[in-house]
Write a sequence for this structure.
């Protein structure tokens, strides 16, 4: 029972609030977060699916049983079978393998958009909220202009202007995603703007940059992370939509939206071509939503 | 009232427990007391269970809390067995509550006049016009000088002292036989506090009803109440006549009194309370 | 030696026509090691004076001298470090997502101080907190412990003056006694000058040498501790506040105190 002993020791060490190092303090909050994630079955399901998506994307060459780009017209439009679990498409490519490689594309787009959007949204929103006055007015009106377009139409216009391709799709999607993040960051900043601990930092001589990065970021981060996680599903849907319209990933790249699009001419004969990527899109975007909701319960400072 | 005896509320061995991650926390531990037609103060520091006690009497504890007692009798009502429906008819009518911030007790989207009128219509089956006149009269009774203006104000537009007076004016109509006041004046300035307490004092004495006055302010409870219950860590450590508070026996009560800076008995250093684990053994 | 000298200080909020003058022409000074009190009811301007001294409210006129140096509306870092503010609410004045160590490190980084860990350990000891508390988050601390952290944060820059804004009014009586004792000890040990804002005359009389009683933005009188304790204050408003700190005055017992301003 030595093993369970170590585990319970580790548990005690993690749960104890009598910290002896800042590492323990950090691990403690991570551990508590993990425990409340486990306690929430839906959020945990979302987490598990997202984790699965990451594993599948990382190990795509191992998991995929066929080459996703190998065409074989003799095998075109075969129904699901033991050899081709999700059937084959009009070029005889294995749909399962393309689905697995498509996970890479999906993850690539969501991560890239998030990395671009989070700092832009935060800097614009927090600066507007913290400085106020004309800075606030100018930044927020720019945000409003972006918000006033329907996001898919805006993404469509941008990717049409920039030319089709996955990188341009990422830029186009990012342009539609940052304004809500900026608004959220501004609203969060406003609630902390006049908090005593911010004023205390000001009275000790802290500059604007330090206050934004050291004091405002840690407070805004949870709700922005939650929002970004919830946004990932709409990023996936927009990416799929662009792919469907031929403005996202270009053939022969595997992308779920494009896969669904190309299958629609064969909808009646080969239902698996649209259904399988459709279910994948649905599952992953639902998973991100569930995870986001769960994270909100765990991370929101107002719940702690 | 069905019951005209002097005891309005009897609480015997009441405990309130909260289940938490690490087990059950007992917020109130075996508390017994009675309230007659008098002003009873409950004194305690934060976490002493004084507010939880007040809420448990109204059955307003959070849903996960477990209340146990041998007996909780309010006039002719057994508070342990009364249905939620019966409790709804008791709350606000027979037992009233005043909280620290009246804004949370008032409906934010109704003017205060409308809310008092509602109470009038509910209790006296009056017409709208009668209710308005009664309301204006009640606002005047609690020393609001321009009731016509106050009638049309929304809760966020009134000051803290005004809010408490509005709460008291509703009690004038509902005529409860017990008032539970949880830190009703902690957010008020001394002059306003004095006015609000005077009105409350008059109400309790004139109507000959009971008041449970929950507070952390020793001087205030000592000067306002007839009897004082001192709570520590969910337990009643001492019950004493307010005038005799200086002769309190329990070391906790003595510790609190000595920790208090005073204009009349200045000391160079304040005594620091030494908490004795033995206080928890009962 | 005069640490703080304020002359014809007036503070306002807002601009133009909507400007609201909260403090109207007050003058006072505090010597080194002295504690000067500001007492009054909410809205009388006592915290606003403190804000102007701390550098929080910049819309003031008149003159402020700190340690003989005339202070302008904009301050240098060194000028900001000379006086530090301790807030009323220990739950709102410490960053909830910073450990105590991080909170104490912050001012040291801003001012580029050396021997940082050593200073943090010293200041924690000074305010009577165990050293391992530096790894804790504020939500793991009680109100009294948090207020000690707030005092430690104010002290870590080695200021000459502490500006105390109702430092104990959010605390329990027993904790208030500990904090008041701590403030007394620190004042003697570090030769600090305090400006204490409070609504409770008993607390003020315990700590202060002189007290300004404020009403609607002005001083009604400046009383000494002796006057408060011997009950020889001059202004009737001061008496009302003194009665207030003693508790409730039953009107039946004492009809004469009914002449309160409504």
């Amino acid at each position: 029972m030595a093993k369970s002993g170590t585990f319970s020791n580790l548990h005690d060490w993690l749960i104890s609030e009598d910290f002896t190092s800042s590492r323990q303090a950090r691990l403690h909050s991570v551990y508590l977060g993990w425990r409340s994630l486990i306690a929430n079955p839906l959020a945990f399901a979302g987490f598990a699916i997202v984790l699965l998506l990451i594993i599948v994307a990382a190990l795509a060459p191992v998991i995929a049983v066929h080459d996703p780009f190998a065409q074989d017209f003799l095998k075109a439009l075969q129904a699901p079978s033991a050899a081709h679990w999700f059937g084959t498409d009009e070029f005889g490519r294995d749909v399962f393998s393309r689905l697995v490689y498509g996970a890479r594309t999906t993850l690539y787009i969501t991560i890239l958009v998030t990395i671009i959007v989070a700092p832009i949204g935060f800097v614009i929103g927090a600066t507007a909220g913290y400085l106020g006055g004309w800075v606030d007015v100018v930044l927020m009106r720019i945000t409003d202009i972006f918000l006033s377009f329907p996001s898919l139409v805006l993404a469509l216009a941008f990717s049409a202007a920039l030319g089709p391709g996955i990188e341009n799709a990422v830029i186009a999607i990012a342009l539609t995603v940052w304004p809500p993040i900026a608004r959220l960051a501004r609203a969060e900043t406003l609630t902390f703007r006049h908090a005593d601990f911010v004023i205390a930092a000001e009275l000790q001589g802290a500059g604007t940059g330090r206050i934004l990065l050291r004091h405002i970021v840690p407070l805004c981060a949870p709700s922005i992370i939650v929002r970004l996680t919830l946004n990932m599903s709409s990023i996936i849907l927009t990416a799929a939509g662009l792919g469907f319209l031929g403005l996202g990933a270009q053939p022969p790249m595997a992308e779920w939206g494009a896969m669904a699009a190309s299958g629609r001419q064969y909808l009646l004969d080969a239902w698996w071509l649209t259904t399988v990527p459709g279910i994948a899109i649905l599952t992953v975007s639902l998973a991100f939503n569930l995870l986001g909701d769960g994270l909100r319960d765990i991370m929101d400072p107002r719940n702690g | 009232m069905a019951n005209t005896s002097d005891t309005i509320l009897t609480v015997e061995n009441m405990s309130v427990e909260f289940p938490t991650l690490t087990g059950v926390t007992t917020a109130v531990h075996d508390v017994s007391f009675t309230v007659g037609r008098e002003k009873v103060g409950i004194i305690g520091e934060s976490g002493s269970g004084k507010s939880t006690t007040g809420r448990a009497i109204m059955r307003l504890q959070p849903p996960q809390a477990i209340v146990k007692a041998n007996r909780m009798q309010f006039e002719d009502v057994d508070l342990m067995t009364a249905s939620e429906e019966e409790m709804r008819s008791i709350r606000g009518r027979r037992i009233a509550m005043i909280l620290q911030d009246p804004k949370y007790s008032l409906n934010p989207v109704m003017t205060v006049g409308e809310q008092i009128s509602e109470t009038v219509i509910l209790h006296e089956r009056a017409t709208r016009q009668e209710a308005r006149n009664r309301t204006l009269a009640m606002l005047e009774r609690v020393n609001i000088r321009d009731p016509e203006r106050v009638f049309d104000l929304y809760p966020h537009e009134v000051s803290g002292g005004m809010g408490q007076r509005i709460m008291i004016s509703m009690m004038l109509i509902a005529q409860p036989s017990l008032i539970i006041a949880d830190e009703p004046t902690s957010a008020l300035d001394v002059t306003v506090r004095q006015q609000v307490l005077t009105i409350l004092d008059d109400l309790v004495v004139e109507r000959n009803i009971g008041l449970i006055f929950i507070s952390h302010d020793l001087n205030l409870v000592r000067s306002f109440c007839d009897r004082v219950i001192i709570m520590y860590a969910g337990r009643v450590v001492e019950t004493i006549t307010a005038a005799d508070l200086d002769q309190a026996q329990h070391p906790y009560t003595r510790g609190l009194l000595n920790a208090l800076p005073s204009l009349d008995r200045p000391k160079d250093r304040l005594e620091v309370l030494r908490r004795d684990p033995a206080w928890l053994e009962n | 030696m005069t640490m703080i000298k304020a002359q014809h200080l007036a503070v306002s909020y807002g601009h133009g026509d909507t400007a609201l003058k909260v403090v109207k022409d007050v003058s006072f000074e505090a010597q080194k090691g002295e504690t000067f009190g500001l007492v009054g009811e909410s809205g009388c301007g006592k915290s606003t004076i403190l804000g102007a001294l701390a550098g929080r409210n910049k819309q003031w006129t008149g003159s402020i001298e700190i340690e003989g140096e005339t202070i302008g509306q904009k301050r240098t870092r060194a000028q900001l470090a000379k006086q530090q503010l301790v807030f009323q609410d220990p739950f709102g004045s410490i960053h909830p997502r910073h450990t105590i160590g991080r909170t104490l490190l912050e001012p040291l980084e801003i001012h580029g101080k050396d021997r940082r860990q050593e200073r943090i350990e010293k200041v924690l000891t000074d305010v009577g907190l165990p050293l391992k508390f530096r790894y804790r988050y504020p939500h793991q601390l009680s109100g009294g412990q948090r207020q000690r952290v707030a005092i430690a944060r104010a002290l870590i820059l080695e200021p000459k003056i502490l500006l105390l804004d109702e430092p104990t009014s959010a605390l329990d009586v027993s904790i208030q006694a500990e904090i008041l004792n701590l403030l007394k000890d620190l004042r003697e040990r570090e030769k600090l000058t305090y400006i204490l804002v409070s609504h409770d005359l008993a607390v003020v009389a315990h700590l202060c040498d002189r007290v300004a009683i404020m009403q609607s933005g002005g001083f009604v009188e400046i009383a000494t501790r002796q006057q408060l304790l011997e009950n020889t204050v001059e202004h009737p408003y001061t008496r009302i506040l003194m009665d207030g700190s003693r508790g409730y005055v039953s009107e039946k017992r004492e009809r004469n105190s009914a002449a309160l301003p409504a």
